[in-house]
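User: quick one, fold this
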Amino acid sequence: MLKGIPEIIGSDLLKALADMGHGDILVVADHFYPPYSKSPNAVSVQAKGNTAPEMIDAILKLMPLDVEYCDTPLEYMVPDVDSGIEMKQCDTWDEAIEAAKRNGYENCAGPIERMKFYEKAGSAVLTVCTSETRPYGCFILQKGVM
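Assistant:
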């Protein structure tokens, strides 16, 4: 048993986080994200029963974000410009940004269009699959150093 580990972080996720290095990409995915086709080389960990912002909050208690080398080490998926879908705000994004702030990260989040998200997610080393069902509930985190 370990002290200080959030209860929603299971042993598989804890090991995968520990195995990541600085600059590595982690996807916190919604319920509909296809981890094996979009992040085929990533370790896929199930975190069902949790929302994406809950997982981000728990992960950021253990993992630093890459604020030294990346302007937006926390990125949230937004509709493609040419999709015809307009979303200016989303509760999921707001909650994830608040989770980052609670963990000491101000102004570290930014949008990434859906197709660019998928392209970047292709190089992820870890995908955390949540039960998030709200639209555009996928996030990319870039690991930093302590």
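User: anything notable?
Assistant: The two ends are 24 Å apart (CA to CA).
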